[in-house]
UniProtKB/TrEMBL annotation:
This is Phage family protein. It comes from Methylobacterium iners. It comes from the Bacteria.
Amino acid sequence: MSTNEQAIEREIQARGLTAPRLTPGDIDATIVGEAYHRFPGTTLIVCALTLRNGFTVTGESAAASPENFDPQIGERIARENARNKIWALEGYLLRQRLAAAADAARGQDDAVQASAR
């Protein structure tokens, strides 16, 4: 979890925003594996994060100047770029679940109203 994510999470909690949402911990919990590959002769590193449902997201990093290339930093950047993609995927999934729950609740209300007629 980045320092920025920690600050945002503290602010959300301080404001008492309690509706269903994703947290940095939720994102981290989706990750069950990670692998890195550096393409020979380049500074390009790809990180593949495997999610608990078996889906894989990737992130990349590459140094513009080979003299500045550090494999550990490259791996951290590639992982962060891959992890950032999970927010959108999990956000969509949460929104889908919320919409399905709202649809189901409307269906129950409709059924109750119909039986009252």
